[in-house]
Every structure is written in C-alpha cells, then in structure tokens.
Amino acid sequence: MTSSPIPDPLQMWREALTKLESNVNSLVTGSMDSQEVMRSVHQLSTVSLGLQQAFEKAIGSYLAKVNLPSRKDVSELAAALQRIEDKVDRLLPAGAAAPTLPRPARTRRPPPDEALAKPAKATAALAAAPGKPTTARAGRRS
Question: What is the residue extent of each domain of the chain?
Fold first, then answer.
C-alpha cells in the first residue's frame, strides 16, 4: 500500500487496538485459569469489536456524504476490474499479446533527432542562397 500524507484513521484504530490487546495479554497471561478473567477478556473483545464496527460505519457514512469512495468501495471496484480483465484475457487468442510500441515523450519539445535536423536544414538553405530570403521568411514580408 502506498504511503499517504493523510493518516488512515482505521489504521490508527487497528494499531491502538493491537497495543491494547497486547497489554491485556501480558497482564493476564498467568491468570487465564480464572473464569472471571476469561469473561472480562471476552467482554473486552466484544466491546472492542463493536466500537470498531461503529467507527467504520461512521467513517463510511461520512465518506458517502462527501461523495468519496470508502475502502470497501475501492476494493469492490478493483475486484470487478480484475474480473473484467480476466474475461478479456480469455477472449483473446492464445499468444496474441498487445504490441508494446514505444510511446513518444509527452512534452512540447520535438524529439531530439528532429530538433537537430531542422536547424541543419535552415542553415543549409541560408548558406545556399545568402542574398535571398528563405520561403518561411518570404511569407512574412509586407
């Protein structure tokens, strides 16, 4: 997963819950024989799971209000896209991969070989007829 400048509240919740569970585990390791301790640990786990579900529901409703996809929406979209790609792959004949042609750079500058060829042509035209204007310049005269 890529790192984001905005912290993930669900990840922070998971980390806090993991830390809490590890602390509880270290405190009650020796007293697991007691029925009361087992009951309280079970209640703590139930409460923690309920809080996590409520938090996820609140975040989901907030994201729906601001018209943003939730983690669940994005994962469902990714799964649907994967299914579509698999179907397209099955439709293609075996060994018919899409040709991978090199794409030109997306800049406003011409490729280096064209940039070098144009000044050479212009210099050659000027050297051939020093007194006469080139065709590009002739159209600009008034």
Answer: 9-91
